[in-house]
Amino acid sequence: MHSEPYLLDPSPDGVHVLWHTGAPATGAVLLGGGRRVAATSSALVTLHDDDGVRATVHRHWSYVDGLGAGRTPYRVVSTFANGAVQESPEYSLAPAVPPHTPVRLLLSSDHQMWRMTPANIAMVAETVGVELDGVLFAGDMVGVPDRAGDWFDHPTGRGFFASMTGRADTVIAGRRYRGAPLLQHAPLFPVIGNHEVMGRRRRHHTLQERFNDPAPGAWDTASYEALFPVPAGPGGPRWWSRTVGDVFVVGLFVTRAWRDAVTTFTEPVERLGDPMGGQFLFERVDAGSPQHAWLTGELGSAAARGARFRVVVFHHASHGLGAHAVPPYTDPVFTGAGYEYPDDIVLRDLAPLFASAGVDLVVNGHSHLWNRFLDPAGVNWLESSNVGNSYGAFPHRGDPGGLTPVVPTVAPLTDPAGNPLPYVADNDVTVFSVLDSAAAVVRSYRFDTRHPTQPAVLFDELPLE
Predict the structure, then answer these.
(1) What are the b/e assignments for 21-46, b being 16+ CB within 10 Å?
(2) Fewest C-beta in 10 Å: which of 187, 281, 370, 463?
(3) Res 278: pLDDT
């Protein structure tokens, strides 16, 4: 294994470059002009194969500084103990976009090796190119975060890095999709979804069983933090903030352990009274929690106030038409016969903070669909996570947060009677969204994989001003 490089957390004069090999090696980044920057190499001890055997994965991490404005060509090279050398193709990197400069940011989430993910990323490249200023990723990159194949060489050919670096291999309707070399050129700004969290280590033999069994105080995000050590805030990479050009971005850890049964507000009899029966929140974000206090300070900072736009990214969607927008994001209360769910913490404690701080856009994932909402304070809530597998939309139920979904402004899909739909929840149609701050708009595109020769269709423009 020799993965392609990916970029993280650019600074005013540098950027982090990471890649992985299947055997110990020394690594370096080769820049245009002959400069060589050594990498720090280490084994990733949390990754395993399907049988629970530790996988041989070595991370190479180089911080390339001293960069001037514009893009610089680069390659990564790995030298192994037997003298073998592997070198990547040439890509381009750049330092952070200066403040107050317009940017283009891809908004994505919920890849999880789904069938259409390589097609989705391929169409991003065809439509807007790969030299973007960043990728804001709202969680759920893989299925099981400690399974090495989910990140790299998954049997389906759709591992996370495979699709995002142009090495995937999926055929749909006669067309072969490889994804695109996106992360080699555009820095990734990720947040944690429920599929980045592993459960109890000592109770189970298989990785899937471990993933399925988190418990309060017995879960971890070790693999995610090793693969994405930056950007990081005071507490590490679980939540962070960065200024990307004229956009101030906050990434939060807002996701939960949940059971499919609770989406109907019922529980199997054998779970009643079990603290694991309902759901629990991995990281607190309610008022008074460390994350909430930190967020309050960040949204009130000079960097946030001075940016043209303010964007908050987290996984769970409290506004939405998808199956996973219920039950409320809160602590369930066992009543003796079932569970009650009090106020949604996101709507109770975060939404007012977003309103007072002038947040322009909240980006979520989790339900694998596209829908958007505008709240009374002028905050836009967008889920653009239909990259390959949708769990469906439930417009008859409505938004649990009480908002009316916004019908796409350009070319909405329609129902059999010809009525425009305020969502995309289709397992043949994949969606991606791009924030273009120069135009003050988020453009959403859809691509019907049943018609592989047709281009992606612009179907919605969300104005940010």
Answers:
(1) bbeebebbbbbeeeeebebebeebeb
(2) 463
(3) 58
Residues 150 and 141: their CA atoms lie apart, in Å, by 9
**Residue from 99, 240, 122 nearest 175 by CA:** 122
Q: Which two tokens stand for residue 79?
A: 């030298």
Q: What angle do CA 25, 231, 225 make, to 5 degrees?
A: 55
- What letter represents residue 91's amino acid? Y
What DSSP assignment string belongs to 403-444? PPPPPPSS---B-TTSPBPS-B--SSEEEEEEEETTTTEEEE
Does residue 464 contact residue 440 with C-beta atoms inside 8 Å? Answer: yes
Q: What is the mean pLDDT of residues 35-49?
A: 96
Selection from 317, 398, 387 nearest residue 351 by Cα: 317
Long-range CB pairs of 284-293, under 8 A, 24+ apart, other chains included = 285/252, 285/253, 285/254, 285/345, 285/346, 285/349, 285/350, 286/345, 286/348, 286/349, 287/349, 290/235, 291/239, 291/252, 291/253, 292/349, 292/350, 292/353
Are residues 361 and 442 in contact, defined by beta-carbon separation less than 8 angstroms? Answer: yes
- HSE, side-chain direction, 13 A CA sphere, residue 381: 28
Question: Over the stretch 237-277, which tens digit does the pLDDT of each residue have?
Answer: 999 999 999 999 999 999 998 655 444 444 555 555 555 55
**Do 426 and 404 contact (CB within 8 A), yes or no?**
no
At 314, the amino acid letter reads: F
Cβ-based neighbours of 294, under 8 Å, separated by 6 or more: 233, 234, 235, 239
Cβ-contact 74, 64 below 8 angstroms:
yes
Mean pLDDT of 180-196: 98
Going through 237-325 in order, the beta strands assigned E by DSSP cover 240-244, 247-251, 256-257, 280-281, 309-313
- Domains of the chain in start order, with CATH, are 1-94 (2.60.40.10), 97-463 (3.60.21.10)
Largest Cα–Cα separation, the chain: 70
Which residues, 6+ apart, have CB-to-CB distance to 380 below 8 Å? 360, 361, 362, 372, 373, 374, 442, 462, 464
Please report the sign of the dihedral spanned by the C-alpha atoms of residue 279, residue 281, residue 285, residue 289: positive
The span from the CA of 194 to the CA of 140, in Å, is: 6
Q: Structure pTM?
A: 0.96
Q: Which of 433, 315, 444, 449 is nearest to 389 (CA)?
A: 449
Closest by CA position to 255, among listed 306, 169, 298, 317: 317
Tokens representing 295 are 């967020």
